[in-house]
Amino acid sequence: MGLWKSERSNTWTFPTLILCLYGFFYMMKPSEPFLTPYLTGPDKNLTVEEVTSQVFPVWTYSYLALLVPVFLVTDYVRYKPVLLLQGLSFIITWLLLLFAHGLVAMQVVEFFYGMVTATEVAYYAYIYSVVSTQHYQRVTSYCRSVTLIAATIASVLGQLLVSFADVSYFHLNAITLASVSLAFLCSFFLPMPQKSMFFHRRGVLEAPPGSEKPVATLSSDRPLSHLEDNNSVVPADRGPALDRPTNDAKPQRHVLGVLVQLTQDLRDCYSSRKLLYWSLWWALATAGFNQVLNYVQVLWDSRAPSHSSAVYNGAVEAIATFLSKSVS
């Protein structure tokens, strides 16, 4: 049994499969295209003005405030605990959406959803700490594709349930709660990474089962570009591997060293104009996309009020997501 667990954790397929299941269930949210009609309808009884000016902005600013500290904590705790935090935040968000009432309660919902989106970095970074570099392109395509597929299916499902089965928005949110709860359960089965980008760069890497090669240890003073995958080994003729534990130095000096290394890596990365331009494009595009996605339902509701006309939010978001997948 122990040997099976060891082999399971040393392959790329098992963590990729579990992470894809996690990504599928956390994006399977059929209620999300109908958030504004739900908040302004009889379930929550908020006005469009309250939703626009007092509820949705909480998500924007909480996301911004949490993003940098969450990024550093994610690296320090090696990804998996942050995925657990994301799953727990999902559950809290939808429990409040279902059973809490009032303006303040919905603002708390948006804060926890800000936590959800800020911790999303762990989903996209986790897999690179548990698979070898030769699989990076493949696992990246799997992890990103499954989220787009799940979002498309969720939007289609939500639209079909609303249009043809007359399912209430409350029950759509109940389905979403069940889905994100499954995602939370999936996160427990993810193997715990032994290394991370900054705080755990000297983590001991185990050789594959049955291998007679010595254990390799990454040194924290090596450039990021020279980091190898977790199956890399140091040849025997280069001397013994460093076996000094990471926490020999004082925690303060270790944290300072990590911050210095982070600064150097940022400087090295953005000395490339192409990478700088790409990063600016990605940041602006992501910010614009999030803002449009956040407020577009308010625009739709103003053009065709949900209480007096048919709602096709799910169909529109399904088509948009499908097209984004097709052209990517």
TrEMBL record:
One of its GO terms (molecular function) is thiamine transmembrane transporter activity. It comes from the Eukaryota. Pfam families: Folate_carrier. The keyword Iron-sulfur does not apply. Keywords: Membrane, Transmembrane, Transmembrane helix. PANTHER family: FOLATE TRANSPORTER (PTHR10686), THIAMINE TRANSPORTER 2 (PTHR10686:SF37). It is found in: Membrane. GO terms for cellular component: plasma membrane. Belongs to the reduced folate carrier (RFC) transporter (TC 2.A.48) family. It is a multi-pass membrane protein. This is S19A3 protein. The chain crosses the membrane at residues 12-28, 58-77, 84-105, 111-131, 143-164, 170-192, 275-293. The keyword Disulfide bond does not apply. Residues 210-248 are annotated as: Disordered.
